[in-house]
Amino acid sequence: MAKASRIGHLLLRFLAFSATLSAVIVMVSSHENATFFTISFEAKYTKSPSFKYFVIANSVVTVYGFFILFLPAESLLWRLVVATDMGLTMLLISSISAALAIAQVAKKGNNYAAWLPICSSVPKFCNHMTGSLIASFAGVVIYMILLLHSIHRVLDPLLMRKP
Amino acid sequence: MAKASRIGHLLLRFLAFSATLSAVIVMVSSHENATFFTISFEAKYTKSPSFKYFVIANSVVTVYGFFILFLPAESLLWRLVVATDMGLTMLLISSISAALAIAQVAKKGNNYAAWLPICSSVPKFCNHMTGSLIASFAGVVIYMILLLHSIHRVLDPLLMRKP
């Protein structure tokens, strides 16, 4: 890899690492007490399996993103990185979708199933949730750029190089 | 591509196509009327944005899976197929995760948010939902095998070929 391209590559990886790290921190630090009708309850990410999955997936990708920053340029492991990148991007996408589906119900509720929206009772928790989802989404976009770049480099799908 | 490998490849693609097609059919054909406390309601996939997304994503992948079966072996478009495969696998994963998150709430409810489980009122709908998710999951697994095979072929990440 040329030096400029390598610096750009590492910069993107560092941004992706920061994005997923922020997503974890923002989600874990969100909790709020509220009274909902007559019941008092605490909103926290541990109360929904989807949010727990979101935090675990983002933590795994953060740890991976940290160690990959220190992988030497000439290491043969870089060939494995495309496959691991792909797997972890899929993990991240899956966790964001699950968390987003629950966040949508928390925000809008579902009349048909009689699930009431809870965001009016715990607005601070909902803001944290939204911020965390946006940060994680930014991380996924960066990983997708890295993946498409790898595929472009090894497969040349748009046939821009002359045979 | 050798002939045997090509037949195996097409067989896998046909299975993936069948899996996503079944997922769409089973989900779309599921509806059930029920009385929930004093309210009468109809459970249907259109009543949740996550299930609508699931049906749309599976339909897109089904149509793609159908047309790719007729792509000639010598077409240059096969180089693009790795990228489109990856994109559509991610779409499918995302839709399954979102639908699964909602299905989990439908089955178990969420005490903290006062969302009650609805599967005891609409068991037939819930069975369809589960079946559809399993079919779609089978489709994703096949697409992942195809993707890992492509990556293995062009990148040789485990260094099994001698340089």
From TrEMBL, chains A, B:
Keyword check for Transport:
no
- InterPro entries recorded: CASP/CASPL, CASP_dom, CASPL
The way it spans or sits in the membrane comes to:
Multi-pass membrane protein
Pfam families per UniProt: CASP_dom (PF04535)
Task: State where it is primarily located.
Answer: membrane
Signal sequence coordinates: none
Q: Where is the Casparian strip membrane protein domain?
A: 4-141
One Gene Ontology term, aspect cellular component = plasma membrane
- For whether the record's keyword set contains Transport, the answer is no
Report the superkingdom from the record: Eukaryota
Compartmental location = Cell membrane
Q: Which residues form a coiled coil?
A: none
Residues crossing the lipid bilayer are: 12-31, 51-73, 80-106, 133-155
Keywords, sorted A to Z = Cell membrane, Membrane, Transmembrane, Transmembrane helix
Family according to the record: Belongs to the Casparian strip membrane proteins (CASP) family.
Q: How does it assemble?
A: Homodimer and heterodimers.
The protein depicted here goes by the name CASP-like protein
